[in-house]
TrEMBL record:
Membrane-related topology note: Multi-pass membrane protein
Record-level Gene Ontology MF annotations: serine-type endopeptidase activity
InterPro entries: Peptidase_S54_rhomboid_dom, Rhomboid-like_sf, Rhomboid_protease_S54
Protein name: Peptidase S54 rhomboid domain-containing protein
Lineage of the species this protein comes from: Eukaryota, Fungi, Dikarya, Ascomycota, Pezizomycotina
Superkingdom per UniProt: Eukaryota
Amino acid sequence: MLRSSLWRNVTARISNRIPPQSPFRRYATQEHQAHQPRLHPVRILGPTLWALAASGSIYLGCAAYEVYQDVQQFKGQVGTVSYNSIDATRQIQGVLRSPATARFSVSDIFTTPWARLNSAEAMLVTTGGLNFAAFGLQRLSSSTFMFFAHVPMYARNFTLLTSMFGHSGYLHIGFNMLALSSFGPALAATATFQSSGAHLAAFYLTGGLFSSLAHHISCASPIARMAAGRMSPGLGASGAIYAMVAAYVLSYPNVKIGIMFVPVPAVPALWSLVAFETWGTFFGWGGLRLAHAAHLGGLLLGAGYVHFDGRKRIWQPTRKFAFNVMRRMEIV
């Protein structure tokens, strides 16, 4: 290592003193450039297809789980079990549960028995627990770190998903879980999610997955500042949290949200975040090392999901498909 470093320095200095037309100048320059670090290419097609397949599997799995639970719970109430009957009952139950879900707070995690939590509240508690468990595992065994971090130049697609459970430090996980507990309950109570833990879980996981993919794709850019990120591990739930924040703002446009604990009108705050992350993605913010593309991807996904009615266009068709498949398989 030392020897090759000395040789690179010598050839670089010699080449600067030799006329450009000299054959040795060309040799010295080529020898110097040969030792420059080369960034490995970042695959795009494979990770994108994997993310699409994984998100579809997540939504289908969550929908199938909820449909099965609904059938078991409601079949004594609705008579003949059909998709329309259990869906109507689910919507009524969601409306009734939403006020309690919106009031769910961090203190309720420690004071409410598990059996009394509705599905959305249980999902939020479970998500927080998984994040803290993964963080503890990283601290106990450093060898597990790379299972919870996504490095774009490595061919490991599964870390697009698992990286959302990894965190770099106590402040990192603390702020993310604070945001989850702040925005999660109110978002779960909206008309989009109707206190459905399965729907919220599918949205959360997909938000984290596609925000990781956005960061991955940005690292394939020829822009040197963005391309350098392909060698750095990306981790954290921030992308999924940003998706929840954007969905929350579009669901409650007249409220105020805290930006660094300062209350700001929700819609201007959202536009400010989009502008901040867009600039950070393409131009950076000095020494501020954040996965801006992941944050921007999460914001766009969350806003688009509510704006284009993801419940009607994605969740309900997936539930119906899952019900029909399970009916043919005689599971329900």
